[in-house]
Write a structure and sequence with these properties.
By secondary structure, the protein is mainly alpha-helical. Helix content is about 45%, strand content about 5%. The chain has a two-stranded antiparallel ribbon. Strands 3-4 form a two-stranded antiparallel sheet. It starts with a helix and ends in a 23-residue tail after the last strand. A hairpin with a 2-residue loop joins strand 1 and strand 2. The longest helix has 28 residues. Helix 2 packs across helix 9 and helix 6 packs across helix 7.
Length: about 325
């Protein structure tokens, strides 16, 4: 009867293994969820950004409870919150360029919030060029640039000059405000053009740009400005933690007024002990290796040697809301 004993032993072993497996599964199921490697911790979750019920733009309260406005704002807040690299770069660059932009807006009577329009237009990259050939930090087309007093020639393109293009943008914004008397409409017109916004307000018989049916780019445009303002005013709320040392330092430089042609900008740069590349980076409006002034005056920015290096961590912070304490 050895065969019977063997069979009994086999089935006993199977029963033991089944019981052991059940006990093991029960033990695992009683462990806290956080210990399960397949279960993400709350810190790893992609959270939907909170959409405010209203915001203040250029001193005007804009209510965002209407479905199209709440969802439009949600889309742009989500976009900026999860396009981490672009948004982070904008915050870093703002430390360098907002100190130049803000005083010009103030001097021209343009609300400070329009600095966020420049962020949306170019990500604060003075050398930005769009597929439509709009250029510079304010993304002017060549025809509009000339209309508002910027010089565009074979050797000069002031669309890439932060100061000069900001002054031109102020002129455009003030012209638009004379027409609309409403800064949100002014912002929309910067994207679509004054003719388009005025025409659509008339055709669709509404008074607010938020009630217009427009192409997607323009529909999103004002919400993008609202959203980036929210992020800049409270970066940590939207997942951005930056130390002062990470911000791009404002650059110091000499200002050299030029009213005569410079036939060789490479040699000119060497005279000031910088490279032609550095001359171009500080003056991206120079289009050639020479400068023809054509009877006009220009200001060249010449950096000092020590400005070209991060020898010590940046300590200049334009807005303390942008940074996390060390």
């Amino acid at each position: 009867m050895k065969w019977l004993s063997s069979i009994i032993c086999f089935f006993a072993g199977v029963v033991f293994c089944v019981i052991l497996s059940l006990v093991s599964d029960s033990s695992r199921s009683e462990q806290p969820m956080a210990q399960n490697p397949a279960q993400p911790s709350p810190e790893c979750l992609n959270r939907s950004p909170e959409v405010p019920s209203q915001i203040v733009f250029c001193g005007q309260t804009v209510h965002l409870k209407r479905y199209n406005m709440a969802e439009g704002m949600d889309r742009e807040l989500s976009s900026f919150s999860y396009l981490h690299a672009s948004t982070m770069l904008c915050l870093k660059r703002a430390n360098r360029y907002f100190p130049e932009i803000e005083p010009i807006l103030k001097a021209n009577g343009v609300p400070d919030d329009f600095k966020y329009l420049a962020v949306v237009e170019s990500l604060l990259d003075p050398c930005a060029v769009s597929p439509a050939r709009a250029a510079g930090i304010w993304q002017f087309l060549e025809s509009t640039a000339k209309q508002y007093g910027l010089v565009v020639t074979s050797t000069v393109d002031e669309r890439y000059n932060v100061r000069r293009s900001t002054e031109a943008a102020c002129k455009y914004l003030l012209d638009a405000y004379k027409i609309y008397g409403d800064w949100t409409a002014v912002a929309a017109s910067y994207n679509a053009g004054m003719g388009r916004i005025s025409g659509e307000l008339g055709k669709q018989k509404v008074a607010s740009v938020f009630d217009l049916w427009l192409v997607e780019e323009t529909t999103r445009y004002v919400y993008r400005i609202f959203a980036i303002k929210q992020v800049f005013e409270d970066p940590r709320k939207y997942g951005f933690a930056i130390h002062a040392k990470n911000l791009y330092k404002p650059m110091q430089y000499r200002e050299i007024k030029v009213n005569e042609d410079i036939p060789d900008l490479v040699a000119y740069a060497q005279k000031y002990q910088i490279t032609f590349a550095d001359l171009k980076r500080f003056n991206p409006w120079l289009k050639d290796t020479k400068l023809d002034v054509n009877g006009k005056s220009f200001v060249l920015l010449i950096p000092s040697e020590e400005e070209l290096y991060y020898e010590s961590p940046n300590k200049e912070v334009y807005d303390t809301r942008w940074i996390q304490e060390e």
